[in-house]
């Protein structure tokens, strides 16, 4: 990067802290804190460039939709539980012309599962290992099952160009590689908690198969 250019590097400490704040009482998840963490994760995709274009543009759109719902109707969209209950009671899940929060958050939830699995595998390889293999494996275990064949094929092919772990971390973390590596285990722990709570709430309301 050119000297003096403004690059917003990725900071896993920020992700960790926001997801930690998202874990509220009654096994619920605060949506604002969830989105704050996700916005930081989104930087990762931006810094990686076109490799993750198959997921990054979609994620940004979903984050913006939920942020808009939160701003317009914050009382009902404080937590995932309150959002689902509000949208179910008002039959918004069946409303054709309404972009509902539950469906939107379900897409982010699936994307987060992919990010978590990729970062988990990234933490287990050496600096000289290529990241393409673990990224493809993480994708095939998570997001791929929700994508049509054309997108799956393009995504896997794009991943072949991914660099070694050392180069990837330098690209997305700048001078703060060690800081990110140190917090990664704790960040993964809290992310799993957020994922499990979200999954359980969608299970409880039988919304995992929302179209």
Task: List strands and helices in order, with pairings.
Layout: H1 12-22, E1 23-24, E2 28-29, H2 31-48, H3 53-72, H4 80-89, H5 101-122, H6 132-141, H7 149-159, H8 165-173, H9 177-204
Antiparallel strand pairs: 1-2
Helix pairs in contact: 1-2, 1-9, 2-3, 3-5, 5-6, 5-9, 6-7
Family: Belongs to the GLTP family.
Domain Glycolipid transfer protein: 29-173
GO biological process, one term: negative regulation of interleukin-1 beta production
Strand order of the largest sheet: 1-2
Spatial separation of the terminal alpha carbons:
42 Å
Q: How much beta, percentage-wise?
A: under 5%
Reading the helices and strands in chain order gives HEEHHHHHHHH
- pLDDT averaged residue by residue: 90
How can the largest sheet be summarized? 2 strands, antiparallel
Q: Provide the helix percentage.
A: 55-70%
Query: How many distinct helices?
Result: 9
Count of strand segments? 2
* Poorly predicted sequence stretches spanning 5 or more consecutive residues: 1-5
Shape by Cα distribution: globular
Radius of gyration: 17 Å
Protein name: Ceramide-1-phosphate transfer protein
InterPro entries: GLTP_sf, Glycolipid_transfer_prot_dom
Family: Belongs to the GLTP family.
Pfam families: GLTP
Description:
This protein has about 210 residues and is an all-alpha fold. It contains 9 helices and 2 strands. It has helices spanning about 10-20, 30-50, 55-70, 80-90, 100-120, 130-140, 150-160, 165-175, 175-205, and strands at about 25, 30. A two-stranded antiparallel sheet has the order 1-2. β1 (about 25) and β2 form a beta hairpin. α3 packs across α5. The N and C termini lie far apart (about 40 Å). Residues about 1-5 have low confidence and may be disordered.
């Amino acid at each position: 990067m050119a000297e003096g250019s403004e690059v917003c590097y990725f900071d896993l400490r920020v992700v960790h802290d926001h997801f930690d704040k998202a874990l509220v009482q009654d096994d619920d998840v605060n949506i604002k804190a969830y989105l704050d963490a996700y916005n930081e994760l989104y930087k990762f995709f931006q810094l990686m460039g076109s490799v993750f274009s198959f997921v990054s543009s979609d994620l940004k759109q979903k984050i913006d939709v939920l942020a808009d719902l939160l701003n317009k109707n914050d009382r009902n969209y404080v937590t995932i539980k309150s959002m689902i209950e509000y949208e179910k009671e008002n039959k918004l899940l069946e409303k054709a012309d309404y972009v509902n929060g539950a469906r939107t958050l379900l897409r982010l939830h699936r994307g987060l599962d992919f990010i978590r699995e990729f970062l988990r595998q990234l933490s287990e390889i050496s600096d000289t290992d290529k990241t393409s293999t673990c990224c493809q494996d993480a994708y095939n275990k998570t997001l791929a099952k929700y994508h049509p064949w054309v997108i799956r094929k393009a995504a896997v092919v794009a991943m072949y160009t991914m660099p070694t772990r050392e180069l990837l971390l330098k690209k997305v973390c700048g001078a703060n590689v060690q800081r990110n590596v140190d917090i990664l285990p704790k960040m993964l722990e809290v992310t799993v908690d957020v994922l499990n709570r979200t999954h359980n709430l969608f299970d409880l309301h039988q919304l995992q198969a929302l179209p």
